[in-house]
Amino acid sequence: MKNMKRVLLISAIVLGTAFGAQAQRIKGSDTCLPMSQKLAEEYMKANRGASVTVTGGGSGVGITSLLEGTTDIAQLSRKIKFEEREKIQEQGKRVTEVTVAYDALAVIVNPANGVSQLTREQLESIFTGEITNWQQVGGADMRIIPYSRETSSGTYEFFKESVMRNRNYVNGIMSMPATGAIIQSVGQTRGAIAYVGLGYLNNNVKALRVSYDQGKTFVAPSVENAKNETYPIVRPLYYYYDSGTAQRARPFIDYALSPAGQRIVADIGFIPVN
Amino acid sequence: MKKLRKILERVIEAMLTVSGAVTSIAILLIVAFLFREGLGLFKSPTVERGYAVYVNSANPVQSLLPWQLKEIFDFQIENWNELGGPDEEIRVFRFNEIFSLYTDEQLDADNDYALLPERLAEVIAANPAIIAYLPQRYAPVEDESVKTVQTGTITMAQFFLGRKWMPTAKPAAQFGVLPLVLGTLMVSFMAILIALPLGLGVAIYMSELASERVRRLLKPAIELLAGIPSVVYGFFGLVVLVPLVQRTFNLDVGETAFTGSLILAIMALPTIITVAEDAMRNTPRAMREASLAMGATDWQTIYRVVIPYSLSGISAAVVLGIGRAIGETMAVLMVTGNAAVMPHTLFEPVRTIPATIAAELGEAASGSSHYQALFMLGCILFVITLIVSITAEAISKRKHEVGV
After folding, report:
1. Contact: A177, B255; criterion CB under 8 Å
2. What is the per-residue pLDDT across A188-232, written as a single tens digit (0 to 9) for each?
């Protein structure tokens, strides 16, 4: 009887540590969600007994969870904010940043729109509400209807930072809860303009060529142009983990950075890091 | 045996009392929590907590309102003379710019940026027309050349009468709920105007005119409508109704208040039909037969006897329908365009309160003013629905005073 108990106890401990070490939680950006999900699936196939759970909620949610210890890896579609880093430091923790992929943002319009290229300055004026008619940027006489993602999205923040140079979006911009909804709306609204991840492009919308050098060169959004760094609106996607518990997060991240992991990244429509 | 049964009865009674009490207390606590979180907003500073706005002390401007701050940092106000200052162009300075002016060594980056406050003070001293938005942790050394601008706290007037909802605007978020409240009321009111005639028509048909067989088919079909998840309605609305509205009315955008009303009307129909039909079928047989015996036609019986008798039930149906429409989130989020502008016509995009809460709570850091503003929105929604339910209660109490 005593022996039996001991056996049970030991096996419980062994199982517990095995699972405890292997169970990993990833939380954060919805943009990274399909990539992390696929990576987790393949990782679990490759490592028997490993278990990875992936949840979305937004980049901000990911960092908050990392701070509270309810996730091991936070996935972010933007860089950690200064305030967030402050909060983490206040708790005496440090986080490590890993770039796992790059995502290019495409600016899209309705296929019926005659305009096919814009400069960054024009985009800034459109999304801050200074340019309101397509005529002002060489198109037909038609109202411009800018669409944006909701404020909880990392894409919203990145676009504001990169294209709009931190100026605020026009008051009362149309905001949609998901990328799919944006594609749908732009496809059926003639004057629409919006931004989506490269992987979401389809035939219902037209991607614009963009110039970041006052109109000298216009570059079309594509994986090749993003890779050779000619396309300007590219953002890194990050994994953040608590440096104190690196051994928990590291195996999965190493897998994501391995050739097999990066192939999955490319399959999802993102740009691999190397 | 008898004693045992008595004890058992007592126990059950006690359990029922306890569960009733627990539920009531839980509801009260939720309401208290809602208001406590929400009211904190009026103690929050207008700029993000831990940040402050600094100017050169040569500048006579002492305090700035949230909208002024926002317009300065968006380059809409470009000269200090618009704010009662000298005739000088405003130089906007964001915290990150310091890292391009000085190297990490100059800021002593390894030593937790020990020199950052001094460097910031240098920048402010060198530019008399500067306005800087900086974290207080690295606040510039307060010497004779640096002055903190008073930005105050968010006031009730700014919140309830404000016309701009820009919760992530930097440095001062704009929390004006007027467009959201008006948007919510407009969409819900229009939805009821559409749903009421349709719903009453179907209810009258089902309770008075339809044969038993038709009724037995129709009733579950309508109840099925109530069982469809709202996100499915929303998707249907986005793919079918939005282009339809856009083409029919020849609009620039199809995501309008009217589209939202249409979807909400469809969603409120089952409630209105079921409640109104039940009320009508509760008309005593004797009254109906008396009317027919007096030589009244079917139609005369319906609108002279059945409708007046069931008026309170019909009103309850309307009020419940409104309640459903006001609180609906997902479907509206997908079809109204969510643009927080003051609505002027039905054919413009609007943003409703529930859609705002659902879309923004995910990112709002807990305890931040954005988070508190969203809770305050919840309070407003709670008050509106409370008024609606009290009205419903009052109407159903009057049941036997009207009509008969």
Report:
1. no
2. 999 999 999 887 888 999 999 999 988 889 999 988 888 888 999
A231 close to A222: Cβ distance less than 8 angstroms:
yes
Run of H or E including B194: helix B178-204
Please tell me the least confidently modeled range out of A9-13, B18-22, B135-139, B268-272: A9-13
Domains and CATH numbers, chain B: 53-152 (3.40.190.10), 178-401 (1.10.3720.10)
Contact at CB, B168 and A151, closer than 8 angstroms: yes
3-state secondary structure of B180: helix
Rounded to the nearest 10 degrees, the angle between the axes of helix A259-268 and helix A246-257 is 70
Taking alpha carbons only, the member of B244, B206, B207, B234 closest to residue B359 is: B234
Angle, vertex CA B351, rays to CA B347 and CA B354, nearest 5: 135
- Which chain A residues are Cβ-neighbours of B362 within 8 angstroms? 57-58, 60-61, 152
CB contact under 8 A, B135 and A166: no
Q: Do B135 and A86 touch (CB under 8 A)?
A: yes
Give yes or no for B69 touching A (CB within 8 A).
Answer: no
Q: Which helix (H) or strand (E) is B62 found in, with range?
A: none
State how far the Cα of A108 lies from the Cα of A87, in Å rounded to an integer. Answer: 37
Supply angle C-alpha A140, A145, A146, rounded to 5.
120
- Chain B residues in contact with A139 by the CB 8 A cut-off are none
Give the gap in angstroms from C-alpha A197 to the nearest C-alpha of chain B. Answer: 19
Task: Write the pLDDT tens digit of every residue in A113-161.
Answer: 999 999 999 999 999 999 999 999 999 999 999 999 887 677 888 899 8
Letter for the amino acid at A208? L
How would DSSP label each residue in B314-382? HHHHHHHHHHHHHH--HHHHHHSBT--S---STTS-B--HHHHHHHHTTTSPTTSHHHHHHHHHHHHHH
Q: Rounded to whole angstroms, how far apart are CA atoms B27 and B37?
A: 16
- Where would I find the H helices in B229-329? 230-236, 242-248, 257-281, 285-293, 298-301, 307-309, 311-327
Q: Which residues of A touch B175 (CB under 8 A)?
A: none
Judged by CB atoms closer than 8 Å, whether chains meet at A184 and B137 is answered as no
Q: Kindly state the helix (H) or strand (E) to which residue B172 belongs, with its residue range.
A: none
Enumerate the residues of chain B whose CB falls inside 8 A of the CB of residue A167: 73-75
